[in-house]
Structures are given as structure tokens and as C-alpha cells.
Amino acid sequence: MIEQVVPSGVASMETFADPPGIAPMPGEEAIIARAVDKRRREFITARDCARKAMAQLGVEPAPILRSATGSPQEKAAPIWPQGIVGSITHTDGYRAAVVAYKLQIRSLGIDAEPHEALPEGVLDHTSIAEERAVLATRPSGLHWDRLLFCAKEATFKTWFPLTKRWLGFEDAHITFEQTGEQSGTFVSKLLVDGSVIDGGTPLASFDGVWRVEQGFILTSIALT
């Protein structure tokens, strides 16, 4: 599925189960030392997907660690090998990772969610009024509230490596286009200052792709 939402030049890997016998690489165990079994399996399998995707680019296997200092968001974000950008996602029954060369792709963000309605009350806290107004007019058959949440998560994952700043759910306005029965595109317009840490072109919006398949929603942004 993941190959359907990423462009040429982006390597990807996904799995619907946790393969037996895989283990974290040196340095990764400390990150999950106190994690419950479910969290450990998600972490290990998702990073295994990331290394398999890296291998498609000819990149040697390497630990994918996290920052030991900084904000909680920075501590949670993966640290990729030099010259590589990537993104990881996991939900019940699905893990995936995408990677690319930094010379080709500026930043990546993917997210996967179950294709089901958000819990009651969550939409109000993860969207802006303009988004909710549009979702109310959308045809039935798709869980647009969960799709919006999924696109917001991909937006944050694309944003954070370039800015090292928080981006709230209310800080991006997302609009969707439906190009197939269960697929389409979206634009994530940023509502806050888009200055980046390397002094490059400020961020204004992201173009993304979405797809619903096998009971999951996938969203992807590849910023060039």
C-alpha cells in the first residue's frame, strides 16, 4: 500500500505483522527499555522496515536513535543517518517506513490510521472550524474525520525536522481532493511562521497524497 502514496525516489517498506526474531540495534534498546511489549514490537518492527527501505537506497543498516535533549517532540523524532530523510508510522496491524536521499527530498511525513471514526470529541480538538464545515458536506463511505487527523499527523512529521518547533492541530488548514473512490490528494496550508532552521525557503504549505485500503488510511507528504 505504501508504494501507492510515495513518489519515485522514495524507498518504502511495510508489514502487517511483527516478524519473529528481530531485535533492536545497539543503542535502540535503551529507548524502549521500559516500554510495554506492544510498544516494543511496534518500535522494533517499524525500525526494521526503515532499515529495509534504507537498503533499497544502498544505505548500510544503522541504529535509528532519538535525541537525548531538547523538546519532547525532538526526543521522539527519529535521527536518520547522514544524508537521509525519512518517516515512520505504526498502528495496530500495520507498520511502515519511507526514506529518501536528502539531496532529492527535503522532508518526508507519513501516517497510518485505522479506517474508522475518531472517538467522540476528538475532531473538535484536532481541527479548525473551516475544516469541520467542509467535512460535514463530504459524501458518506469514508471516515473523513480520521483522514483529517491522519493528514495532520503527516504534516507535523514533515514540519518538525525542518523547524524543530511544535505545530499544533490548529496551525494547519487541510483541504482534500478525491481523485478515486478511496484515494486522492490534500493540501496542508500552514497558518504559522514557516521559518526553517537551515535558513532555507520558509514553509508555506505541503502537498500530500491519501489512500484508504485494507482497513487503513495512509497519508504521505514528500517535500522537495
Automatic annotation (TrEMBL):
Residues 107-187 form the 4'-phosphopantetheinyl transferase domain. Transmembrane segments: none annotated. Residues 28-100 form the 4'-phosphopantetheinyl transferase N-terminal domain. It comes from the Bacteria. Mg(2+) binds at residues 111-113. The keyword Transferase applies. CoA binds at residues 39, 47, 89-90, 111, 153, 157, 167. SUPFAM superfamilies: 4'-phosphopantetheinyl transferase. GO terms for cellular component: enterobactin synthetase complex; plasma membrane. GO terms for molecular function: holo-[acyl-carrier-protein] synthase activity; magnesium ion binding. Keywords: Magnesium, Metal-binding, Transferase. Its cofactor is Mg(2+). GO terms for biological process: enterobactin biosynthetic process. It holds the Pfam family ACPS. The keyword rRNA processing does not apply. PANTHER family: ENTEROBACTIN SYNTHASE COMPONENT D. This is Putative phosphopantetheinyl transferase.
